[in-house]
Automatic annotation (TrEMBL):
Keywords, ordered alphabetically: Cilium biogenesis/degradation, Glycoprotein, Signal
One annotated Gene Ontology cellular component of this protein: MKS complex
One GO term (biological process): cilium assembly
Organism placement in taxonomy: Eukaryota, Metazoa, Chordata, Craniata, Vertebrata
Record's protein name: Tectonic family member 2
Assembly behavior: Part of the tectonic-like complex (also named B9 complex).
Domain Tectonic-1-3 N-terminal per the UniProt entry, residue ranges: 147-260
Family the entry assigns: Belongs to the tectonic family.
PANTHER family the record matches: TECTONIC FAMILY MEMBER, TECTONIC-2
Signal peptide span: 1-25
All copies of domain Tectonic-1-3, residue ranges: 276-419, 430-618
Length: 696
């Protein structure tokens, strides 16, 4: 059953609220008066019964700026430039009045683009009658100006973009309206001198107001307008305002846009083949046809790129959302051969029937006898690599069968994983030996009840209920928050609510030990495994006296806090290795009360629970405590002074971490040698050498 149109619902609501009070069967315009400044306006006519309803248009003559009293008049000759369109919708008619000749009347030939008087000023009367009886009127006051942006046709001229290296792109940034004067924008060339005088003292200041070449702080002439330090004349810059650092301040990019993006040109026109001498990390994987091996991936803008190259030794796990009406299945991977000794993928297929997990907003099809088609809902790729070559590809494709005319939103998942040639069935490590940022935290459960190898957090979907939430691993070095909603009734038992909350929160931490390093062996507890400190949850069976009150439960676990202590453990080939020092889990509780509206009804309430992960870095060596002199004398404290004397030779200090210390020392000595040569070869030293030669 189709729902009524929005216009009918809106007008019906107005009738119920008393804003409109016509008798059903009478005629009334909503609204009854309109000011028109564009080429078309619309109003609604409440009719009740659409039969024998006639709508006419006439142009009225107003005198001395006073609107005439609306009376039913016939069409006039001046109304030939206007058209009336009536669109029926249930018991409402939509009446649209449009200027037939466009806005050519407002094409001004005056040099002043800001016209003080309107170019079109008329009063229109729209009358509605039934069976020759005039019952409703609509007055339209038409007032159009030549400087309106609606009165100008789009220019076909190509905009010349200046080179931002030599000229600012926006010499008047506050000029926001084309063909019209912007108030308080004194640099707007479209403002007449009379209008500019009205707001001359209130112009926009700074770069936005047109001062696109202001005096910058390093300019020598800037020292005359503000107080400067004593060393300013020695280090200031002598430059003209045309060479200013504010060039390109409002625009960053090329001078003229290109038709084809650089990514498309790089991807489809001239693929770069790096596989002749073996792959390096990040190189695109090539096929024997000298094309990229592509898998759909998510771009930085969040869009799904269907043919994105797969990079060597870069794992990913992405989800693409596609409309089934425009979805096109990609070519299969059976005929693809990888250029690395000609490797052919080995593909296995798996069917799924639970379409509700992959397709949302599905519509019920009326034609159930139509053909069906297959769509891939998940594709998992495992690349076996050794050194710089690929030895094999294992592909698992999960497909589902849907109706050929199925409508809805489908979520596809694509994963790529690189495994070493000698790894066999070993578990994937999170570093060697220390943890790598972004890798899962490795855990172990010695109780043997499950085989969880990492901590988890919730990844909510749909309504955010805990029953439909999936899990995602906790990644090393990344603080995170997650949560879901528990459904609770008004007569919920407090003990059962606590047990349910503890069970949901405890499902995230089903582990007893955590790995100190990223490559700790699961079969050897002595290989760097630490016991996790679990702070006990509140007693789920202990009810306080307040729990005797209806719909109130005290001390319900609602938040799980996971704190992980990490530290630097040394260097391997110049790369800092990080390890875990300890893990603590702790619960926090709240008092829950059923939230009633105007009246407490037996409906399901939502109780939010959440989990947080915090990585706390502990310094490998405790910092040296501050002396009394350092505490009281703050001149050399870089955190409390603009001038930091301890970092005078910053590249040679411990604060600079951009390069290894030996390399910094070598560059510093080379710079000192160059300075000494420059001094020795300077003019005074040459004269001293010549004088010493003459005396000897």
């Amino acid at each position: 059953m189709a729902s009524p149109p929005p216009a009918a619902l809106f007008l019906g609501l107005l009738l119920l609220q008393g804003d409109l009070r016509p008798l059903w069967g009478d005629l009334v315009f909503v609204p009854s008066f309109i000011r028109m400044s564009g080429p078309a306006v619309s109003a609604f006519l409440v009719v009740g019964d659409t039969e024998n309803v006639t709508v006419t248009l006439a142009v009225l003559r107003d005198e001395a700026g006073v609107l005439p009293v609306p009376t039913c008049v016939g069409p006039t000759t001046e109304a030939e430039n206007w058209s009336v369109t009536v669109t029926p919708s249930a018991d409402v008619l939509e009446v649209t009045v449009r200027l037939m000749n466009g806005l050519e009347w407002c094409s001004s030939n005056e040099t002043d683009s800001v016209s003080e008087s309107p170019c079109l000023l008329q009063t229109l009367l729209v009358s509605a009658s039934r069976s020759s009886s005039c019952l409703a009127h609509l007055l339209i006051q038409v007032e159009m100006y030549a400087n309106s942006s609606l009165t100008r046709n789009a220019s076909e001229n190509v905009t010349v973009i200046p080179n931002q290296v030599y000229q600012p792109l926006g010499p008047c940034p506050c000029n926001l309206t084309a063909g019209a004067c912007d108030v308080r924008c004194c640099c707007d060339q479209e403002c007449s001198s009379e209008l500019t005088e009205l707001f001359r003292r209130s112009c926009f200041p700074g770069v936005f107001g047109g001062d696109v070449n202001p005096l910058f702080d390093q300019l020598c002439s800037a020292g005359r307008t503000r107080p400067v330090p004593e060393w300013f004349p020695l280090l200031c810059v002598q430059s003209s305002l045309a060479n200013t650092p504010f060039l390109g301040y409002f625009y960053h990019g090329s001078v003229s846009p290109r038709q084809d993006s650089s990514f498309e040109g790089y991807l489809h026109i001239d693929p770069k083949d790096f596989s002749d001498f073996g792959y390096k990390q990040g190189d695109p994987i090539m096929t024997v046809d000298k094309a990229y091996f592509t898998i759909p991936q998510v771009s930085l803008a969040g869009q799904c790129v269907q043919k994105a190259p797969v990079a060597f030794l870069q794992n990913f796990d992405v989800k693409c959302i596609t409309d089934l009406e425009i979805h096109q299945e990609q070519d299969g991977v059976l005929d693809v051969k990888i250029k690395s000794g000609i490797v052919t993928p080995e593909v296995i297929y798996e069917a799924r029937t639970d379409l509700d997990k992959f397709i949302t907003n599905a519509e019920i099809l009326l034609n159930n006898g139509s053909a069906s088609k297959r769509v891939n809902v998940e594709e998992h790729y495992i690349f076996i690599w050794n050194n710089k070559t690929i030895h094999g590809i294992n592909v698992k494709i999960i497909w589902a069968e849907i109706n050929a005319h199925q409508k809805g939103i489908m979520t596809q998942r694509f994963t790529v994983k690189f495994l070493g040639y000698n790894s066999g069935n070993e578990e994937e490590t999170s570093g060697n030996p220390g943890y790598q940022l972004g890798k899962p935290v490795r855990v172990l459960n010695t109780n043997g009840m499950n085989n969880d190898t990492t901590f988890h957090l919730w990844q909510s979907a749909g309504r955010g209920l805990c029953t439909s939430a999936t899990f995602r691993p906790i990644l090393f070095g990344e603080n995170a928050l997650s949560g879901c909603l528990l459904e609770v009734g008004i007569n919920e038992n407090c003990t059962q609510l606590r047990e349910k909350a503890v069970e949901r929160l405890g499902s995230l931490i089903k582990a007893t030990h955590v790995a100190m390093r990223g490559n700790s062996n699961y079969s050897d507890l002595g290989d760097g495994w630490l016991e996790i400190i679990h702070v006990d949850a509140p007693d789920t069976g202990a009810d306080l006296p307040v729990s005797s009150m209806n719909s109130i439960c005290p001390d319900v676990p609602a938040q799980l806090h996971i704190r992980i202590l990490i530290s630097d453990a040394g260097l391997v080939e110049g790369i800092t290795q990080q390890e875990i020092l300890g893990v603590e889990t702790r619960f926090s509780s709240v008092h829950w009360q059923y939230q009633c509206g105007l009246a407490c009804e037996n409906k399901t309430d939502l109780f939010p629970i959440g989990a947080s992960v915090q990585f706390i870095k502990v310094p490998a060596q405790l910092p040296r405590p501050l002396t009394r002199f350092q505490i009281n004398f703050t001149e050399y404290d870089c955190n409390r002074n603009e001038v930091c004397w301890p970092q005078l030779l910053y590249p040679l200090t411990q604060y600079y971490q951009g390069e290894p210390y030996p390399q910094r020392v070598a560059k510093g000595l080379l710079l000192v040698l160059c300075l000494m040569l420059a001094v020795l070869l300077s003019n005074p030293w040459i004269r001293m050498f010549q004088a010493w030669s003459l005396t000897s």
